[in-house]
Amino acid sequence: MTALAPIGIGKRLRAKLRQIKALPEAAIARLLSRTPRARHFSGAYRTRAAAQQAVIRRGGNGYDDAAITDVSYELMCQRTAWDYPVMFWLQRLLPESDALIDAGGHFGTKYIAFRDLIDLRKVRWNVYDLPAIIQAARRKQGMGSLPLDIVFYDEVSTLPAAQILLCSGLLQYQDSAFGDFVAALPARPDHIILNKVAQREGPETYTIERIGSGCVPYRIRERRQFEAEIEGLGYDVVESWDIPDLGHVISTHPWLGRSNSRGYILRCKTLR
Hints:
It is globular, with a radius of gyration of 20 Å. It has 8 helices and 10 strands. By secondary structure, it is α/β, with parallel strands linked by helices. Strands 1, 2, 3, 4, 5, 6, 7, 8, 9 and 10 form a 10-stranded mixed beta sheet that branches.
C-alpha cells in the first residue's frame, strides 16, 4: 500500500496542474456563459435539478420550449456517419416488426433521413417527444411539410406497443431515468437502439448546452454505471460503437476532460 501512495499523489498533482493551467480560458468561458456569445457547453453540475436552475437563471426554459423547436431541423434531416449503424440494424429488425417508437424523435427527422435508403412503408413510425415539439410537428404536418406516415405523441401512456424502441440523441436530455421510461411503455420492446449517448470515464456530470437562443441541461453519464443499468433492465448489449466526432469539452471546466459518445443495440433477454 505504501509503495502505491506516491503514484496516487502524483496523479492527483498532475490533475491539479492541468486545472490550474486551464483556469484563464475557463474564466473567460464563464464570463461569456450568460451572453449571446456563450460557448456550446458551459457549467458543470452534479444533478439535473441544479443544471435546470442554472438554465432558468440564464433565461432559458429547457427543451420544452417553442423558441427552439425548429433549430437545426434541416440539419437533423440529413444523414450523418453515425446514422449508418442505426440503419444497418433497422434493415435487419424491421422485417420482423410492425411498429417502432422514435423517442425524442423531434419532427420525425430520422424517418425523413432514412426513408430513401430503407423501406419504411410497412412499419408504423411513432414519434414521441415533448409537447412544444409535438405541437409544432403537428402544425407542420397539417401544412403538408411532414410525411403523413409519421404519428406524433406527447404522452407515453398513449403510445402503441412496438417491437423496436429508437432513442437517437435522447438520453442526454431526458428528465426521467431511462429504466423508468422503458417501464412506462405499453409493452417491453424486443430491441432498443440507442445512439449518441453522451458518456465519460468519471462521475456523471450535467452541463448546459446552448441551442439557438435557448439553453438546456445536458447529461453526461458515467459509462460503466450506464451499462450496468442496461443489464439491470433485462437487456443484453448485442453491439456498441464509438462516435468520436461527438465528444465535447465543457468550456468552463476543461479539466473534466473530453466526453465521448456511443451507440448500442440492446436485445431483451427473453429473446435468447
